[in-house]
Design a protein that fits this description.
Length: 77
Amino acid sequence: MSTTLTSKGQVTIPKQIRDALHLAPGCEVDFAVNRDGDVVIHKVGERPSPDRFEAARGKADIKWRTDDLMSLLRSED
């Protein structure tokens, strides 16, 4: 997917990308360049967590006691 740079340095973000990021007119976006030189676009306020486990932290709705959990994990069933 490609687009053309205008004389003012502007580009149109392709619809497939706008849809994937849920971008609408007036949304703020942020651009960054990663270590590989790739340009990355983020919807402002919705940056992914740098730690992939951070998103899951604190999401369990079952309160396990350590002994019960270890018993479950070690069972031979």
